[in-house]
Amino acid sequence: MTTKPWILGLTGGIGSGKSAVAQHFVDLGVHLVDADHAARWVVEPGKPALGKIVEHFGPDVLQADGQLDRAALRSKIFTDAEERRWLEALLHPLIGEEIIQYLARAQSPYAILVSPLLIESGQHKLTHRVLVVDAPEQLQIQRTMARDHSSDEQVHAILKAQASREQRLSHANDILLNDRDLHWLQTEVERLHAFYLTLRGGQA
Predict the structure, then answer these.
(1) DSSP assignment of 97-124
(2) Which fold has domain 1-30+109-204?
(3) Whose CB among 94, 96, 159, 186 lies 3.0–4.6 Å from 42's, allowing a Cys bridge?
(4) pTM across the whole model
(5) Residue 19 annotated in ligand binding
């Protein structure tokens, strides 16, 4: 009989390096689901969620080709907490269902759910163990500005909207401090992977 894979939640603040960590786990053969991808799947044209969003916010949240105009939607909810809550109440359960379906297909001993909002969205409840990729805030800001060419203020605004480091770290079973180079980071991922393969149900 095959045992169902246990689920590792992988998260980290903006610029922490969680994408590099996620990629290396994939290279090691671990089944991975990205919550951001699931969030895109649920609002594709033809999906009921998109219809509800248009009904609620009006047709100007659609692009000419019928796809969701994310920038337009973001600008409507960015400053309005009430509207953001409405959208989250609609999407979070649907995203959760997509994630569960994808995780269920895993062939590896454990599967990973990577999500920048793992803690805030309650998605950590879908997981058995949480790995937080952490980095000093100054380094997060430098990396993000270099990657997205965004301003210092923009990065600070995103950092504020994401769970505080304390909140994230308080949910962590494992913490990977990413303040060195990529080679070191990959070695750490391999060390964690070897450890995770020894776990049953994600608990030591």
Answers:
(1) HHHHHHHTT--SSEEEEE-TTTTTTSGG
(2) Rossmann fold (3.40.50)
(3) 94
(4) 0.80
(5) yes
